[in-house]
Amino acid sequence: MTSGDRSTALTALARTGFSRLEEADAGLGELEQLTGAERADAMALAQRVADPDRALAALVQIARRDPAAIRAAAGDAGTWRALWDIVGASDGFAEFYVRHPDEIAHLAGAGLTVPDEQLMRVELLASVGDDEGFAADATDAAWVALRVRYRRLLARIAAYDLGQDDPASAIDVVSASLADLAGAALEASLSVARSRVAGTGPAAFPRAQVAATRFAIIAMGKTGARELNYVSDVDVIFVGGSADEEVVSEARAIDIGTRLAVQTMRGISGPEIEPPLWEVDPNLRPEGKQGALVRSLGAHQQYYDRWAKSWEFQALLKARAIAGDAALGAEYIAAVQPLVWHSAARENFVEGVQGMRERVTEHIPASEVNRQVKLGPGGIRDVEFTVQLLQLVHGLTDERIRQRGTLEALDALVAEGYIGRSEAEAFGRDYRLLRLIEHRLQLRGLRRTALLPEKEDDLRVLARATGLSDSAAGVQAAWESIKREVRDIHVRLFYRPLLSAVAALPEGERSLSTEQARDRLAAIGFRDPAGALRHIAALTSGLSRKSTIQRHLMPIMIRWFADGVDPDYGLLVFRRISERLGNTPWFLRMLRDSAGAAESLTRVLSGSRYIGELMEWIPESVAWLDDDALLRPRSGAALQEEARAIQTRWDDIDGAMRSVRALRRREMLRVAMAAVLEVVSLEELSDALSTITEVTIQATLRAVRREVVPPEDDALDFSVIAMGRFGGREIGFGSDADVMYVYRANGIDPHRASTLALKLVAGLREQSEDHRLPLDLDAELRPEGRSGPLARSLDAYAEYYRRWSLSWEAQALLRGRGVAGSVKLIADFLALADDVRYPANADPSGLREIRRIKARVENERLPQGADPARHLKLGPGSISDVEWLVQILQLQHARAVPAMRTTSTLGALQAAVEAGLIAPDAAEKLAASWHLASRLRSANTLLSGQTSDVLPADRARLDGIGRILEYPPHSATQVEEDYLGATRRARRVFEKLFYG
Question: Is 212 helix (H, G, I), strand (E, B) or coil?
C-alpha cells in the first residue's frame, strides 16, 4: 500500500469515528484475518456505534479467544449489527462476551423487539431448573447460570434500545422490559432460595413447610413503576405468611420467609464467579433497616395504620407485586394502595412533601452538582417530584390520575386537565432524554451511575450513544438546555395554574378549580390556602402594568414563599408592600428584572416577622435587595452626619425625634435583612446594632438637652455610659441598652445640676420610646441598683465607689464605655472606673460574693416554669456563664495583663488565653457556646418579631431559627442538639474554673 493509499484509508477510518487510527487499521486487519469478517462491513457498522475504538478492540479480544463465535456472528447481518451496537456502547457487555463468547449466538434475531415478559420469566426459571417453585440445583452454580441467562436477555433489550433511530421515544418500552426482567430474576433467585432453605443441613426447614410458606416480593420505586434503569438498586418489600397453619405456623412461616429473602438477595447481588446483577434494597420496609426483613400482611397493615410516616405512604405509590406468591402480593397492594392517597389528608402531609423536596435536592458533592443527571437541579428527580406531588395533591379525590409510572401519570394529569398539554409534552420529552442519558451512562460499564463524564472523549462517546450530538460540546449544551427547561416547567406546571383559579374566568375555562388550587397551596405549606388565594387574586387581577408583571412573577414567587418558614405571612406582607408602593417604577422594574432581588424579598418576608413588620412601614427598603452593598451596615460617621443634620433641620423636639426614630428603624431593618440574607457576620451584626443605638442615644441627648438645659446652665456636663452587652458592643436584636448617667456641675448650683441631670434622664427615656421598635434604656446596673439615684455627679460616684462599692458593682464597671455627652467627662469617669474594675489585688471576699450572687441568679432569675437548659442567657453553659467567668478573670488579672482591659467578652477571653490564664481548648468551648447562644437570641427575635431568651421547644420555630442561622430546612433537632451540646461542654469548663 502506497503512502497515499494508506493516508486515504486512515482518513476513512477517521470519518467512520475512530480516534486511534493506527490501532483501528491494525485491528480491522486482525479481525478479518481471524474471522473472515469483511473490513467494509465492519467499518459500516463501526460508524453507527458509540465508541468504534472500544468496540473493535473488544471484538478482536473475543476473536482471539473464540474466532468461531465471531465468525458465526459476522455471518448473520442482524447478529453482527447487534453485537457491534452492544460492545460499542458497553464495556460491561464486552467483558461478558469475553467471559462467555458462546452467548453471542443468542443475539440472533435481537433488536427487532424487546423480549416478552412471560418469555423472560420462563427463560430464567429454566436456567435454574425450576419445578413448581423449587430449583433443581441449590448450589452456587444455579446462581451463576441465572446471572448468565439474565445478561443474555439484557443484551437483547440493549440490542433493541441501541438499534432505535429515536431511542428517547423507546424509553418507556425499554424501562418496562428492564423492570420485567428484574422481576423474572427475583423469581428465579427465589426458586433457588427455596431449594437451599429446604436443603439437608441442620438449619434447613422441611420442604413441605417451605412449600406452605406464602412469600411475595413487592417492587417499589422505579421497578414497581416499570421504569427501571440498566443498573439500579431494586427496592423491595417482603411479605410472608402461612398457606396452611396445620403444615407451618404463621410465626415459623415468617422465619422461613426471612431465610428466603436473605437467600434471594444473595443470589442476585452476592459475590460469585459471575458478577452481581444489581443491589436488592429492602430498606423501604416498615422501620427501615431496624425493622423486620419479612412481615405478615397483617403486621404490615398494623404498622401503616399506627406508626407510618407520610413519606412511607408516598413510597407505596409505585408498589407492585413482581415475584413469589401472586395472590399474597395482590392482597398486599389492595390493602396499602388506598393509604397512599389518604396520606394527603394527614396532618403532617406538608412536612412529608417538603421531605420529598429535600430528597430531590439532597446533598450532592459540590464538584458533582452540575453533572448529576438524576439528583441535580433540572435532573430526573425534579421531573418525578413534580409529577408525584401533583398526583398526591389531586389523587385523593381523583382516581383517574393514580398511575405508578411517571410518563403514564403525566398523560393522565393532562387528560384530566391538571396541567397543560404543551408543558406536559415538553416535560415528557425532557424526561425521556434525561433517562436516555442515564441509560447510556449505566450501559457503558454495566454499573450504577448518574454522573455526566468530565473527559472530552467520554462526553463525545455519550454524544454518539444518545444521538443528542456528535461532539462533547454539543452533548454538554443539550444537557444544560434540558436542565433549564425542566426547572422552568416545574414552576409552570405546579404554580402557574394557581393563577387561573383566581382569575375572572368562567369555571370551564379554568385549568384548576378553586378547591384544587387550595389543595396545591396546602400541599406546599400554606396553612391558610383560602387566604393565600385571596392575596394572589388581589396582586394579579386587573389590566394594569403592575398586575401584568405580578402575573408573570407570581408562580415562581409562590414557590419561593413555600420554601420559606411562614409562607402565609410572607405573601400577606408582600401584598401590603405591593399596595403601598403602587405603580412605583423602580419597584416594578426590580421585580421584573432582578430575580435575585425578588427571591431575597420572599426569603426575608417568609423567614422573619421582625423584618416584615418594619418593611411594611419602610417599603422603599425593598430597593436594597437589588444590591448587597446597600445591605451593608452604614458607618458610624455616616449615621452621625445624618443625625446632626436632623438637629439642624428641626427646631422642635417632636419633629427631630420622629426623624431620629425613623433613622433607627431604617438602619435596624437594613441590618436585619443583611443578617437573614447572610451578608453580615455575628460580629458585624453586634457592632452595627451597637453603633445604631449609640447614634440614636447621642441624637436624642442633643435634642433633649436643647429643650431642658437653658443657655445659662450650659456649663453642665452630662454623659451616658454604656454598660452590659451594650458596653461590650455585643447587643443583638431585642437587647436592652444598659446605661448609667453621670454629670458634673462645673460651677452650677449642685441642687440645680442634679435637677437638670434628672430632667435629661427623664427626657432621654421618654423621647427614646418607640412603640414600633422599642429601645429600653435600662439603668439597673447603676450603684445601688433600683434603689440608687438615676444620675450621680462624678464626685458622688467617686465617693460611693471609695466607701460603699460592692463587688458586683465593680464587676458591672468592666463593661463600662462612654457613648454620649461630654467627652472629657467620659474620660474622667472611665479613669475613675479603671481604679475600681482593675484593682491591684482582687478582694477574695468580693470574689466569693460574686460566686454566691451567680449561684443565686441561676436559682432565682430564671422565669417561672422555664427549662434552665433552654435559657439562652441564664442557662447552664450559656451567655452569663461565659461572661461571668471572663469578668472574674478580669477582676483578678486585668491590672497585670493590659490586654484584658477591654469591654469585649471574647477579646478579654482571647487575652486570657494569650496570658496563659486559661487553656485554648477550654476557651474555644466557652467562645463556641457564647457565640451560638448570641446568634440564637437574635435569630429568635428576627423570626417571631418578639424578644425571648428561651430556645423554643416548638419544632417549626426551631426550624425557622435554624434557617436564619444557615442550617438546612427541617434542622430543628440539629439546632437543639448543637446548642445543648455546646452549653454542656461550656458548663463543664465554667464549673471547673469559676467555682474551682
Answer: coil
Q: How far is CA 162 from CA 111, 119, 167, 436, in A?
A: 8, 21, 7, 11
Cα separation, 847 vs 229, in Å, equals 72
Selection from 338, 297, 295 nearest residue 316 by Cα: 338
For residue 898, the cross-strand partners are none
Question: In angstroms, rounded to a whole number, what is the distance separating the alpha carbons of residues 320 and 330?
Answer: 8
3-class DSSP assignment, residue 98: helix
Q: Where are the alpha helices (DSSP H) in 768-919?
A: 794-803, 807-813, 823-837, 844-860, 879-893, 905-914
Please state, in angstroms and rounded to a whole number, the distance separating the CA atoms of residues 539 and 598: 15
* Tens-digit pLDDT profile for residues 401-433: 999 999 999 999 888 878 878 888 999 999 999
Instruction: For residue range 941-972, list pLDDT tens digits in order.
Output: 999 999 889 999 999 899 999 999 989 888 89
Q: What phi, psi does 958 have (nearest 5°)?
A: -60, -40
Neighbours of 473 (CB within 10 A): 12
As a whole number of angstroms, the distance between CA 469 and CA 460 comes to 8
Give the C-alpha separation, 768 to 705, whole Å. 13
What are the backbone angles phi and psi of residue 242, rounded to the nearest 5°? -105, 135
Above 80 in pLDDT, residue 764?
yes
**Can you read off the three cell numbers belonging to residue 216?**
411475595
Residue 892, H or E segment? helix 879-893
- Specify whether the CB–CB gap between 725 and 815 falls below 8 A: yes
Alpha-carbon distance of 97 to 637, in angstroms, equals 79
Nearest residue to 264 (alpha-carbon basis) of 333, 320, 323:
323
Pull the grid cell for residue 470.
Answer: 456528535
Per the CB < 8 A criterion, the answer to whether 487 and 382 are in contact is yes
Q: Does residue 792 or residue 651 have the better pLDDT?
A: 792
Kindly tell me the burial class for residue 940, based on how many C-beta atoms sit within 10 Å of its own C-beta (0-12, 13-18, 19 or more).
Answer: buried
Q: What is the 3-state secondary structure (H, E, C) of 453-514?
A: CCCHHHHHHHHHHHCCCCCHHHHHHHHHHHHHHHHHHHHHHHCCHHHHHHCCCCHHHCCCCH
Instruction: Report d(CA 18, CA 970) in Å as an integer.
Output: 52
pLDDT tens figures, 438-452: 999 999 999 999 889
Contacts of 51-55 with CB under 8 Å at 24 or more apart are: 51/88, 51/89, 51/461, 51/464, 51/465, 52/16, 52/17, 52/18, 52/24, 52/88, 53/18, 53/19, 53/20, 53/23, 53/24, 54/87, 54/88, 54/91, 54/94, 55/84, 55/87, 55/88, 55/94
pLDDT in tens, 63-111: 999 999 999 999 999 999 999 999 999 999 999 999 999 999 999 999 9
Give residue 540's identity as a one-letter amino acid code: T
Cα separation, 612 vs 676, in Å, equals 12
Query: Which region, left, alpha or beta, applies to residue 420 given φ > 0 means left and ψ of -120 to 50 means alpha?
Result: beta
Tell me the pTM.
Answer: 0.72
At residue 706, the pLDDT reads 93
Number of H helices, E strands in the chain: 45, 12
Count the residues in the chain.
Answer: 996
Strand duo 717-722 + 130-131: pairing: unpaired
CA–CA dist 435, 429 (Å, integer): 10
**Three-state SS for 232?**
coil
Mean pLDDT of 855-879: 87
Task: At 71, list the grid cell.
Answer: 465468525
Q: Nearest 5°: CA angle at 793, between 790 and 796?
A: 95
The helix (H) or strand (E) run that includes residue 85 is helix 77-89
Cell numbers that stand for 380 in this block: 430526573
DSSP secondary structure, 173-189, as one string = HHHHHHHHHHHHHHHHH
Amino acid letter for position 807:
S
Could you give the 3-state DSSP secondary structure of residue 518?
Answer: helix
Q: Which residues have CB under 8 Å from 539's CB, separation 6+?
A: 547, 550, 554, 574, 575, 578
Q: Nearest-CA neighbor of 494 among 538, 399, 560? A: 560
